[in-house]
Design brief:
Length: about 675
């Protein structure tokens, strides 16, 4: 029914679930994948109850996210339960307004008519001031230990609609109560301006904190009776401005009803242009963007919409969102994410809406444009909750890294290039993303350029059944690439499209929960860079050896007759010498089948990348042992480099002279040329 977020890094999502309590879970579990936030997903066990119930709210304190206000139905009291939950202790204090049970009573028999979806709102000006709604607005300033009524009955108070629900088995649990306040919002722009909307079609406002209220419903043009004021969004930009979403489906009104006032409700305008009429177009929610004035989001019973001009025109913002009821819309302000509560399809997050805020007519008129990116976090992996592989409730983590957006008016003539440059202007990564017209998004995984790739051109030792690819190569098993996770700091994104260049600054931040310090991360970089260079050195040696070995094997197959048997023998002997060097660099028996990776020791390349992974696995500085281990491995690199140089400078030229002397066409080269 609702969704809220806290301000943790990464933030948590809170809300309620039908037939269960309210829950809290991470927007990013940081489980799995190098760096964090990888493929591990958000397991069911990452979520836990914050008490409350299936239909209410779970609203964290804006300063102390360990304090959560929950509302719900249940426990005999049905509507009106308010719980002040302490996340640290995982316990709650029940502080409801009227703790006498109301289950089984029709609305007309109870003192306070709390619907099971009763609104709860924390004042944007005073975190200790919390509002809830029955037919009155109630306020506490002491953590729920006492409540004050700050309004008269703001509903129609139509007693004819407050009897027993009827039917063979009456169901008086607060769900169907008429004459209740359904939404409350205090203006972020001015303290004391409080809006209240009811489920019997009324909109009321006070400008003095509740001492005097004005019914502004009659000022709303062509508003049918008995609508539910699902959402009131008080503008942060102007104290006199507010938006409402009204739902009439319970009286069979299916059209969208979104309204805006700029004069405290004295006049209203219907703002639904662009939302198609259908049986599922009635409106549940409207939200104002906290950064760009006039950027609005709206949720209907089957879609999400966006308006760039304060509601004058709406257009779909569906993307891969299921066509489900959108009941609540919130913007997580620190991460600039759009967070939704959908009825029946769970919580959904649109990561990083910063390009929507920057998409102006001036931008659209340009052939290309690079949007200013949000700051990126260098999240590190953490151990997640235990789960099962086929759990259908597993959520998706956001893609890891920095999200970069650019606009293309039309398909470019040539390739699109994105470069990431560090503070010195050095390019640390080059990406070649899509050239699709419109807004494009690409994620930089915060890694530098990978080391050079190795392609095997020969079969594994003792495994003739392994086939080479059509290009005569195969992956070199046991020798992966290495990238360095770039340190926190300020970077520049450089976009090049058809000769035009655009730049934007990008801030990369440390994971605040990872341990270690930025200074220790910086201590990793020189050592990781040395290992990176050594891995490149090993890769170059392997590629050189594989080129030579492939030629020697090919030559042996092509040599005719027995008259050149001595040449074949020399070729075999020379290849054996190259193998003697190569098998120190990589395990040549690996086939990729079964568990052959544990049958034989890894080569120098895998030991170097393994050491780099251990150093870069956290934000702590490298240990003395890591430095010593690298010196040992570096010495081996130099030793094998010397052995290979001798083969290339002495043995291979001597063999080529033999070929020339025996009139064998061609020579064996070490650079891949034929």
């Amino acid at each position: 029914y609702h969704v809220t977020m806290d301000n943790e890094i990464p933030y948590n999502v809170l809300g309620n679930k039908q037939d269960g309590p309210s829950y809290r879970g991470p927007s990013n579990s940081k489980a799995g994948g190098f760096g964090g936030g990888g493929g591990g997903g958000i397991a069911r066990g990452e979520w836990h109850s914050v008490q409350g119930g299936e239909s209410g709210w779970a609203t964290p304190d804006p300063v102390d996210s360990n304090l959560i206000w929950s509302t719900a139905s249940g426990s005999g009291s049905v509507g009106g339960i308010v719980i002040r939950f302490d996340e640290r202790a995982r316990t709650g204090h029940q502080v409801e307004v009227a703790p006498i049970g109301t289950g089984g009573h029709p609305a007309g028999e109870v003192r306070y008519r709390f619907i099971w979806d009763a609104p709860l709102h924390i004042s944007p000006h005073d975190r200790n001031k919390v509002y809830v709604g029955s037919q009155h607005v109630h306020q506490t300033t002491d953590g729920g230990r006492s409540w004050q009524v700050i309004s008269p009955d703001l509903t129609l108070n139509d007693r004819s609609r407050m009897g027993v629900s009827g039917g063979l088995t009456p169901d008086n649990i607060g769900v169907e109560y008429a004459g209740v306040i359904f939404s409350i919002a205090e203006s972020p722009a001015q303290a004391g301006i409080i809006w209240a909307g009811t489920n019997d079609g009324l909109v009321q406002v006070t400008t003095d904190g509740g001492r005097n209220w004005t019914n502004v419903t009659r000022n709303i043009p062509n508003l049918p009776p008995w609508g539910t004021i699902n959402t009131i969004e008080a503008s942060r930009y102007d104290a006199n401005t507010a938006y409402i979403a009204v739902d009439f489906h319970q009286v069979n009104g299916r059209d969208p009803h979104l309204y805006k006032t700029t004069d405290l409700g004295r006049t209203w305008r219907l703002i639904v242009n662009g939302i198609p009429r259908s049986p599922l177009s009635y409106t549940n929610a409207i939200a104002e963007d906290p950064v760009r004035r006039g950027l609005l989001y709206a949720g209907t019973e089957n879609a999400l919409y966006v308006s760039f001009n304060d509601g004058e025109l709406w257009q779909p913002l569906q993307n891969n969102l299921p066509h489900a009821p959108v009941y609540d819309i919130q913007v997580q302000e620190h991460f600039h994410d759009l967070v939704l509560a959908t009825y029946g399809r769970g919580f959904w997050i649109m990561d990083d809406i910063t390009p929507l805020r920057q998409l102006t007519p001036e931008v659209i008129a340009q052939n290309a444009y690079l949007f200013a990116p949000r700051a990126a976090y260098r999240f590190r992996s953490r151990e997640g909750a235990v789960g099962v592989a086929n759990d259908p409730t597993v959520g998706q983590n956001p893609p890891y890294g920095a999200s970069i957006h650019y606009w293309l008016k039309s398909a470019p003539r040539g390739p699109v290039t994105l470069e990431i440059q560090d503070g010195s202007g050095r390019t640390v990564r080059t990406l070649r993303p899509s050239g699709q017209p419109g807004i494009n998004r690409v994620y930089w995984d915060l890694q530098g350029e990978p080391t050079r790739q190795v392609r095997a051109r020969t079969k594994p030792l003792y495994a003739d059944w392994v086939q080479l690819g059509e290009d005569g190569t195969r992956p070199m098993l046991g020798m992966g690439t290495l990238s360095i996770l770039t340190p926190p700091g300020r970077y520049t994104v450089r976009l090049t499209v058809d000769g035009q260049t655009f730049t934007q600054p990008l801030e990369l931040r440390k994971d605040p929960n990872s341990g270690g310090t930025e200074q220790e991360i910086q201590q990793q970089i020189p050592l990781l860079t040395e290992i990176y260079n050594d891995v490149n050195g090993v890769a170059d040696m392997l590629n050189t050896i594989e080129v030579v070995r492939a030629q020697l094997q090919g030559l042996s197959r092509l040599l005719p007759g027995d008259g050149l048997a001595d040449v074949r023998t020399a070729a075999t002997e020379l290849e054996r010498k190259f193998i003697a060097v190569e098998e120190n660099l990589v395990q040549l028996k690996l086939t990729g089948g079964g568990q052959d990776g544990v049958r034989w020791p890894g080569g120098l390349g895998s030991k170097l990348t393994g050491l780099a992974g251990k150093i870069a696995n956290s934000d702590w500085g490298p240990t003395t042992q890591a430095g010593e281990a690298h010196q040992e491995l570096r010495q081996r690199v130099q030793t094998y480099r010397g052995q290979l140089d001798q083969l290339l400078q002495q043995d291979l030229p001597a063999f080529n002279r033999t070929l020339q002397q025996r009139n064998v066409q061609g020579i064996i080269v070490a650079d891949g040329a034929r």
